[in-house]
Amino acid sequence: MRILNELAQLIDTAPEPEGTLSVVASATIETYLLPTQARRFSEKHPEADLDLRLRNTGELIAEMLYFGADRSLIECQCTEARLASEI
Description:
Blueprint: H1 2-13, E1 20-25, H2 27-44, E2 49-54, H3 57-65, E3 71-73
Parallel strand pairs: 1-2, 1-3
Helix pairs in contact: 1-2
């Protein structure tokens, strides 16, 4: 899966983050895909705080629109014109 490879690459190459990295994710991603990556992130960056939140797609989009999260992950394409998304 491309998103997991890119997330792993981000974790491996990112400088030490400061503060909190806030990630919102839909149920499928949060339940099945994110735990392994979250553990890798915490092991690589023990000083950083990782805030993971489960949201439905509408809530997730609203959080991104109003800067409530740094990153979001959903299993469908985002059709909100004010947000850039990658498949």
